[in-house]
Specification:
Layout: H1 2-16, H2 29-49, H3 51-54, H4 59-71, H5 80-91, H6 100-118, E1 133-135, E2 140-144, H7 148-152, E3 168-172, E4 180-182, H8 185-193, H9 201-210, E5 213-215
Amino acid sequence: MIESLAAFQSGLGRALLGEDTGPLDPHSPGFRFTMTVRRSWCEGRSIIAARAVLKFMPDDDRQRLVKEYVDQGGGLAWFQATESERFLAFLAPRLPDPSHALTVCRMSQALARARRGSLTFVPPGQPVGAGSVRRGGHASLVWFHAHPDAIMMPLNGGKLPPVGPPGHPVLFAPGIQNLFRMATEAEAAVWTTLAIADAPSDLIATLLMEGVLSHSECDSI
């Protein structure tokens, strides 16, 4: 009896995934209702996973991409953080570039990366030579196409600013208070070019302490 129940549950799971209906009738009202509930649940989890990004998208695009993501198996991750990571990775190459939606998507990914790194990040104890420094494995620089405060206004009912040039760099790293801050022009240049030897030593020291840069021999992603 236990094996029979286990087999039924396994078959039902495969049927819901569209792999094998087994003894189930895929056209029965009960099965169709179960599929509808499952679909709604997956779409709801997906929307929660990338709510901020979806807020910046037209309704038609939002519905289309959520549907496409769920069609490809989205919405079933055990943990919401994992679901968010997967959906953001799905969305990023499908969003207009440039767009505020893509910026917020990259921001969300950068925050998640910095948050993971903050769990184990330890500021370096000793300065090292320029040749042994690289970008931090949990750090990112995201260019905003308007001031970040203005871009965030629609989340509170405000009006979205027009997309301008990428003139507002924001750093994300595990050692930064609240995990992010505006970057200076010099910091953005160091991140982009890694011209460490040409940068002031105090600037490099700050970026190392924040995890924006790291020692190559001890950094890991």
